[in-house]
Design brief:
Structural class: alpha+beta
Number of helices: 2
CATH topology of the largest domain: Jelly Rolls
Distance between the termini: 17 Å
Radius of gyration: 23 Å
Helix content: 10-25%
Number of domains: 2
Number of strands: 10
Largest sheet: 6 strands, mixed
């Protein structure tokens, strides 16, 4: 092969590799147990499940969390996702207001959480849809109220949404915690999963792009 053509092909491969590394999708599923895991009624110790992710991407660009819970009284539930020293409050006594301290009475969730968009804040889901007592479905924003569940209200600040996990390294342990914090009704955690897109850190991308540009410059000089 002509040396200039050979170097050109190497540069082309480097450019392709740099472009490919700019967005690495990842998906990880765990916490699924035959028959589900019991969420004990009125038990603040709750339950925690975790899984470990190892992925080429190093910074989370987008994220979706899927959660399925059956039974129980939704207004009793508190749930958060923890990863890389950051966490997002997925549920914090949904429906709880100054006039309704018990929260919503519906039974279960089959939902997806995203940092923004979707149907809106899951804490107030009955203002958007009427589940008629059944499980809640659809794509929502996490509750995000990082306050004591005993005082969580619709008016509380939302400071711990899924956006807290954007920009963290996807690798490592992901932990989901769920607890039922009031008497009356027992539920089950059927499963949960994490899906997203991760990209290299800016320094890594700059390094790959630099290699490609240097190679291209050498090819141009050699071609002359």
């Amino acid at each position: 092969m002509n040396p200039s053509k050979k170097l050109a092909s190497i540069v082309f491969v480097l450019v392709l590799q740099a472009g490919h590394a700019s967005a690495q999708s990842f998906a990880f599923t765990g916490g699924v147990v035959a028959g589900g895991l019991t969420i004990r009624d009125n038990d603040p110790t709750g339950l925690a499940t975790s899984f470990h992710l190892s992925n080429p991407g190093t910074v989370i660009k987008s994220l979706t969390v899927n959660l399925e819970i059956t039974g129980t009284f939704n207004g009793d539930l508190y749930a958060y996702l923890e990863h890389a020293g950051s966490f997002a409050v997925l549920l914090n006594r949904v429906g709880r207001t100054a006039l309704n301290p018990d929260g919503y009475p519906d039974s279960g969730f089959g939902v997806s959480f995203v940092p923004s968009g979707g149907l809106g804040d899951i804490h107030d889901y009955r203002a958007i849809l009427d589940p008629s007592g059944g499980a809640i479905t659809g794509t929502w924003q996490a509750d995000g109220r990082n306050v004591d569940p005993g005082v969580s209200l619709d008016t509380g600040p939302r400071t711990a949404g899924l956006h807290e996990l954007i920009g963290t390294d996807p690798n490592g342990d992901w932990v989901l915690f769920v607890a039922d914090l009031a008497p009356g009704g027992e539920g089950k955690l059927v499963g949960w999963s994490v899906q997203g897109v991760a990209v290299p850190e800016p320094s890594e991308w700059a390094s790959m792009a630099g290699v490609a540009l240097v190679g291209f410059a050498l090819w141009r000089r050699w071609k002359r």
